[in-house]
Each structure stands twice: as C-alpha cells, then as structure tokens.
Write a structure and sequence with these properties.
Elements (H helix, E strand, L loop, with lengths): L16 E4 L6 E2 H17 L7 E5 L4 H10 L4 E4 L6 H11 L3 E5 L5 H9 L2 E6 L10 E4 L17 E6 L9 E5 H14 L7 E4 L6 H13 L3 E4 L5 H11 L3 E4 L1 H9 L5 H6 L4 E4 L6 H11 L3 E7 L4 E5 L14 E2 L3 E5 L11 E6 L11 H7 E4 L2 E12 L5 E6 L4 E3 L2 E3 L1 H8 L5 E11 L3 E10 L7 H9 L10 E4 L16 H4 L7
Parallel strand pairs: 1-11, 3-4, 3-5, 5-6, 10-11, 10-12, 12-13, 13-14, 25-26
Antiparallel strand pairs: 1-2, 6-7, 8-9, 14-15, 15-16, 17-18, 18-20, 19-20, 20-21, 22-23, 24-25
Helix pairs in contact: 1-2, 3-4, 5-6, 8-10
C-alpha cells in the first residue's frame, strides 16, 4: 500500500490522463509528477520545507487539486475556504501556525491581509489557460526567514490539516498523516472498484475532505482521471457531464436533489453519458432521493459515510451485485467499524455510538488533550475513535445512522432521531427538502420542529403536514412546529445545517 500521497501515482502510465477541467487540455501522470518536483523546489526557494504549514486559498478547480497534492510532498497543506472573512482567516492562519500561504496571482482579498498581518510568506500561484489543467507555477512574493528542511516527506509526516466544523464549540485541529490519506484513498478506490478507465466529475469543495480524498486522491490511487469543475452549479452540471464524460460523480444530498430537478430536460445527455455509479456522502441521503437518482440515471447509488477524522470514508454501500440499501450507509469499507456504549469505554451490540479503528484514522486532535481523552479509547486490542454518531447494524452488516448524538432530540426523556422524522416527511408529495431539529421548550427541554421546502408549484400548510406525520409517527415524534422556508441554511460544503437552526429561523433568541 502507498505510504505518501506521491506514492499513489508514482507508477501509473506516463501518458495516462490525471487531471482535467473545462476547456483545458488534460494533465498526464507524467506531467503531475513533474509538477510535484517543481513545486518542492519552489517551496524550498521560498524558505518552506518539510514540516512547515502552508495554507492554500484558491478557487475550486484543477489548480486547487494539484496544489494540494504537490505542496503536500514538500510541506504540510492546510486548505481554507476562500469565502472566509478577514477575522476568520486571521483565526485559522494563527491557529494552524501557518508559515506560508498560497494565493492566486492578482488576489488581494482578506486572506492576503491576514497573511501580511501575521508575517506569512506569500506564494503566488499562476497558470496559463492554454496549459494542461492543474499546471501552475509558484512565485515567492515574500520569503520565510529561516532555512527550510529540504529532506523528503515521510509516511508518518502530517500531509493535511483541517479544522472540524466547530458548530457548537471551538473548531478542533485534525492532522492527517500521509499514511492516513493513502489508506483512505485505497479504501475508496477498492470499494468503488476504480480502474484507469474511470473518470470522476468533481464539484465538491477542495478545502474539504470529501473532494480531496474521495474524488482526487482515490482517483489518483487507481490511475483514473478526475475532471475538476469550478464548484457546484446545477445549471451547468449536464453541460459538464457531456464535456467530461465521467463514469461517476460524488456529491452531497442537496447537490443530488438540485441535479434531479433538472434531469428531465437533460434526458438525452443522461442517455449519451452513462454513469457506472453515483456516490453520495457527507450527509444523510434521503431514501427517496437515492431511489430517484438510481431510476433517473439507471445507475446504482453508493451512499458512503465519512468524516474528517477518518480521512473521509468509514463505510460504503457496496456495488452490485450486492445490495444498496436506502437509508443505510453500507458496510465497513476500510477501517473496523463497531458500536460502543455512549457512556463507557466498551463495545456493545445493538444501538450506540459508532466507533472506528484503522490506518485512515487521525492520530489525534492537535493540542487538545481533553478532546482526545473524550474521543479515543482502547478496547479488544484496538484504539477506537468515537464518531459522535448514533447507529446500529442490521443482520447483513449494514450500518444505519440515527443521527449525531448531539442532534438527537430529547423531548421530556423521549429520544427522537431527526433522521427518522426527515424520512417520513420526505414521503409527503409536496415536500422537496426537510430538516428536523430540536426546538427549546420550557418544560420538556426540547421539542420537535421541522424546516420544509416545498416543491415548485405545490402547496401544503403546517396543519396538513403535521397531520401527515401524525398518521405515520408516534405522537411524541410529530413536529410541533413546521416552518415553511424558501431555502434551508447550508454549510460551506452544501450540507443542510441542523444545529442552531432554531436560532437561524428566529424561533429562539440567540444565547
């Protein structure tokens, strides 16, 4: 198995296609290997070497993909969301202890201001649209003051640093080793049976683990190709599909739903560009959406379960002839996956907290002893990581997630899975999207509420939706409030936001 990111593609055919993009020639594997060498030299010339942390703030696209891979071979990568404000850049750059930042030529936004305030070396990335996709040069606008460590990166070196979402607390720093990323890339490539004949259409943000590992790294591990769109755009998806001719794409559920809304008028493209499979991850895929995708594209839909601390994938629905079970995130697909007590450090049968152990799992949060003590434990000869998700296995070994433990609604002692309520509401013919969430209650502690987006041209009111639920759910699970909205708030990766939704919708005052 590969030990570093470069090992993933060290021996693929020189003329094999690696990185593509709209209206750009393909970058070959030989070209990608050359780019890695040039990038390492440019980093050293700027005073940056092994162990130094380099923030990358670039638009989504092929250069972001190759910058991640190439910079990781000479330093430590830390991709950041280009949409951050100045205060956010200052926090993350400081928290990461970054020594340098990669910015596009001509960029003069808040990331540059923050970098200059913190005294970072500034590296300018330039590219020519006539060159192969992902090709770039690095120019040092300012240089780090010390001599860099020019030694080669090693398998146990940190390759990538990301922060947790920090929805309810200060974001935690997650360091991922080269071995973690390489293991996860191989796990995904194996579970999807990727070969050099496969091509991924990537629309996922490349400052997030889903796109970096499932789309880019897994494709490179298999000698396959990845075509990098400039982000997600439902209006452009089918044009990209025809231009890229992918065999698969990976996305979050909200993206799949937007694609489905435009599928009928693009039936000819779907016919001309058959997909081998469709992958979904990073949030729960409603069973109704899974079925609609499979019927529309006449391809299996592979829902997977991943998180940053696992370098993405933990479980995955298998490919045919094995079953893809709607509502399940599949079987263990790389690491060991078990159920643990929610209150103690032991493994259990039945329902409990999902825990994992394997070569893709982070060695631990950085500088956070309390979080590590709460998140890791030893049992039955393995070191287990607590995912924070509640789940259970069926008789066939398929895992079903009930929800985040912190999102489980506690209504006067009755525990309610918001995903279960979501599933019932998604059967309502007028409902397009829904998020069930906890609404603070003065006596019960929490009650059930749901934010709903209706399908275009259809009508329903709160009373009729509650009646629909009451016919299908126990009374204590029926939402006491149903809020009709035009759009449900989403995170940076397109995931619907459950935590804090009561405040965002104005149902409670901010704390």
């Amino acid at each position: 198995m590969s030990a570093t990111l470069s090992d993933l593609f060290a021996f693929h055919r020189n003329d094999g296609l690696a990185i593509g993009a709209p209206d750009r020639p393909w970058l070959t594997y030989a070209g990608l290997r050359d780019l890695v060498g040039h990038t390492i030299n440019a980093l050293h010339a700027a005073g940056i070497g092994r162990g130094d942390r380099v923030a990358i703030v670039l638009p989504n696209g092929p250069e972001m993909a190759t910058a991640f891979v190439a910079v990781a071979q000479g330093a430590v990568t830390a991709p950041l969301n280009p949409a951050y404000r100045l205060e956010e850049f200052e926090f993350y750059l400081s928290d990461l202890q970054a020594r340098a930042i990669v910015l596009a030529e001509g960029y003069d936004g808040p990331a540059l201001t923050a970098a200059n305030r913190l005294g970072l070396a500034v590296l300018r990335l330039g590219h020519d649209a006539a060159d192969p996709a992902g090709s770039f040069t690095l120019r040092a606008e300012s240089v780090a003051p010390t001599e860099p460590d020019r030694s080669s990166v090693r398998p146990r070196d940190v390759a990538l640093i990301l922060h947790t979402s920090g929805t309810t607390s200060r974001p935690k720093i997650v360091p991922l080793l080269h071995t973690n990323l390489a293991a996860s890339a191989h796990h995904i490539a194996t579970s999807l049976a990727l070969t050099p004949h496969d091509r991924c259409l990537n629309m996922m943000p490349l400052f997030h683990i889903h796109g970096l590992v499932a789309a880019v790294s897994a494709s490179l591990a298999a000698g396959a190709s990845v075509w990098c769109a400039p982000g997600f755009d439902a209006l452009r998806f089918f044009g990209w599909m025809e231009a890229a001719r992918p065999t698969w794409y990976t996305a979050v559920p909200t993206m799949h739903q937007a694609i489905l809304s435009r599928a009928a008028r693009n039936a000819e493209i779907i016919e001309r560009v058959p997909l081998r499979f469709i992958r979904s991850s990073s949030a729960s895929l409603p069973a109704q959406v899974m079925q609609a995708l499979s019927e529309t594209f006449r391809a299996p839909v592979i829902e997977a379960y991943g998180m940053t601390e696992a370098a993405h994938q933990m479980t995955s629905n298998p490919l045919p002839p094995q079953a893809q079970k709607p509502g399940s995130v599949g079987v263990a697909a790389g690491p060991l996956v078990r159920i643990a007590s929610e209150t103690g450090n032991w493994l259990v049968d039945g329902t409990g907290e999902v825990v994992i152990s394997g070569p893709n799992v982070t060695p631990g949060y950085e500088a956070n002893d309390a979080a590590n003590a709460a998140s890791f434990f030893e049992a039955e000869g393995h070191r287990w990581f607590r995912t924070g998700d509640q789940g259970s296995f069926d008789a066939d070994g398929y895992l079903t997630i009930s929800g985040r433990l912190k999102e489980i609604i506690n209504r006067g002692g009755e525990k309610i899975s918001p995903l279960e309520v979501d599933g019932v509401l998604m059967d309502h013919p007028a409902i397009l999207q829904v998020v069930t969430f906890a609404l603070p209650h003065p006596k019960l502690g929490e009650d059930v509420a749901a934010a709903v987006v209706l399908r275009e041209g259809m009508e329903a009111d709160e009373a009729s939706i509650r009646a629909f639920c009451a016919a299908r759910l126990a009374d204590f699970k029926v939402p006491r409030r149903v809020i009709l909205v035009d759009e449900i708030p989403k995170g940076a990766t397109g995931k619907l936001q459950r935590i804090g939704l009561a405040e965002k919708l104005g149902l409670v005052s901010p704390a």
